[in-house]
Amino acid sequence: MSEHDLKPINIDQIRALLKEKEAGMKLRLAACAGCTLCAESCFMFMNKGKGQDPQFMPSFKVLNTLGKLYRKRGKVSRAELEQMRKLLWSNCALCERCYCPLGVDLPNMIAFARKILRSQEIEADGQQAPEKKEVSK
Amino acid sequence: MIIANRKTVEEIKESLKAYKKVLTVGCGGCTAVCMAGGMKEVNDLNTQLDILFKDDKVVFQINGAVVERQCEVPYLAELDEIVKPYDAILSMACGAGVQFLAERYPDKPVFPALNTVFVGVNKDIGWYEERCKSCGECVLGMTGGICPITMCAKGLLNGPCGGPQDGHCEANSEADCAWIKIYERLKAQGRLDNILKITPAREWQDQVQGSLVLDKFRDKYSKKETK
Amino acid sequence: MAVFLGGIAWRLVELFRLTRKRERVAWPTRNVRADSPAEQKFRPILSFQHSLIGQHPVMAVVSGLFHLCVFIAPLFAKGHNLMMRESLGFCFWSLPLTATDALTVLVLGGVLFMLARRLVIPRVRAVSGLADYALLALVAVPYLTGFIAYHQWLPYRAIVTLHMLTGEAMLIAIPFTKMAHMVFFLFARGFMESEHNVGRGDRVWSS
Fold this sequence. Notes:
The complex is a heterotrimer of chains A (137), B (227) and C (207). By secondary structure, chain A is mainly α. Chain A is 50% helix and 0% strand. Chain A has a domain at 50-122. Chain A is built from eight helices and no strands. In chain A, helix 7 (78-90) packs across helix 8. Chain B has 227 residues and is of the alpha/beta class. Chain B folds into two domains: 2-118, 3-Layer(aba) Sandwich (Rossmann fold); 136-211, no CATH class. In chain B, 26% of the residues lie in helices and 19% in strands. The two termini of chain B are 35 Å apart. Chain C has 207 residues and is mainly α. Chain C contains ten helices and two strands. Chain C has helices at 2-17, 37-50, 52-55, 57-75, 78-88, 97-120, 122-125, 130-151, 156-173, 181-191; strands spanning 19-21, 203-205. In chain C, strands 1-2 form a two-stranded antiparallel ribbon. The two termini of chain C are 32 Å apart. Classes of the chains: A mainly alpha (137), B alpha/beta (227), C mainly alpha (207). Chains in contact: A-B, A-C, B-C.
């Protein structure tokens, strides 16, 4: 196991990030009626998901990444973050074309979840998240 | 991001009139984000072409497929089996993607559905602006983040030409003079001495196909003999 | 009622507080890609195809009818209006009793459709939890008990009490559950900075 894998998740950092957009994000998560009408607007769902696999559906991706982060108040394991990584990067091109009849802006939420994962040095495949260094005042 | 713009449906139809079975291939990358060549645009275009050809009483079949990006071989490879029954391909990727696609299927006529217009930014939804000419010699550090190649009509590297009228470019009265903006930006940052240095004439490289191999991958490729 | 109205008001305030005014900026008039003549002719067809009813006709019709009846049935029910007039002095116009009955059946049909959808279609099941099913029950019960009460199939007093209690419960739950989409949807689509937005975009999400 590499050193990277053993590094603990900084839950406080995740919580701080979640708090920044808490009001808006929680409102959107609450408003999601689980109607799944966003599915057909996602080319990943239609292609890779063959028009059926929920793992590619926009609402599923958001509810199981950002939704999960809020539900668990940031208390997630590295394994859970790895699962989220798949949903956020492998299963989403962030082409920003997903549609929600209720007005939830899905791309925003995917981007925010990606930001949170990056803070824990989890990035898309083949990418390296930048090292965090303190900047002197 | 690469910004492209769909050709008119009339132009596209004209380019396809000799073909009976066409596959429209969309792209999930730049052209999806700028709403020119994503899945939705593939479907819309196919609807239009279908109806237009039917109105002409021409036998015409058109289908669509979307790949993540047309500029990467593994994603293009997904199309290998799919393209077989078609006698032409209509690509909704940027110029780079269209060419890659054409290279992969050299026996099939490939047509672009889009005009690739520039490297640019999303100012707002549906509004894109050019910011970069890919000149290969970025001077943004010197000019405080304003590109004189893109934003100056004459592409000047050493200050305004003496033609600006009321802060506007003498060649294009709608545009601001880039160098006045550069001056103001640098002044605000206390870096005016940047533009006191003379920038020498540059090697304009845009007549030659650009190519780049990253150093750490060099030994994967054999060296090509240069004449 | 107070909780319902207060809750809705709270949700609306929260919603608007999350938005900001958007400055309308002048765009350059050159290089606007306008529709060609053929493309102009296709606009209405394509708009329809991309609309909710074009993409999901069954869901749009069923959900539309359901939501419409959910509002109309209680607001214009004779029984409700009689009570309203007695306690407040005024009331809304009332529908004939058979009409309210029919609307209630449509509501219950809608709930059944949604339940079936949640159980049968895999992608809907994948985003359905206990809360979603419980909410369906919460919505169904007031309408069901109202229906039974009107037809007097079960002891009237008990059923009507149940009807009132579950009705109140449903109203109270609206602002605090996903039923808040009642107000959210009216505005949220206007706030998105996206191709799917509605309106001029004078207010947008601030985050």
